[in-house]
Amino acid sequence: MHFHPHQDLHRERERDLRAELEATVALRHAHLRRSAERRERRASRLATQLATLRRATLRTP
């Protein structure tokens, strides 16, 4: 039997908050991962452009 219904409420509230926190953290991680992937693609593209430019510069007398 439940002698302390308010404890059940607290437990439910805690579970809800924990679920909300986990969802928020998951979203944040997904966002950070996408940002990192974008930065890596940009860095790769810049490195390629730089290498191309360097080769062109070396070929120039």
Describe the structure.
This protein has 61 residues and is mainly α. It has one domain (1-61). 90% of the residues lie in helices and 0% in strands. The protein is built from 1 helix and no strands.
In this structure, how is the largest beta sheet organized?
none
**General shape:** rod-shaped
Query: How large is the share of residues in beta strands?
Result: under 5%
Average predicted confidence as pLDDT: 92
Specify the structural class: mainly alpha
Based on CA atoms alone, the radius of gyration comes out at: 26 Å
Instruction: Return residue spans where pLDDT drops below 50 for at least 5 consecutive residues.
Output: none
- Helix share bin: over 70%
Distance between the termini: 91 Å
Q: Count up the domains.
A: 1
How many beta-strand segments? 0
Query: Counting H and I runs of at least 4 residues, what is the number of helices?
Result: 1
Features:
61 residues; mainly alpha; 1 helix; 90% helix
Give the gist of this structure.
By secondary structure, this protein is mainly α. The protein has one helix and no strands.
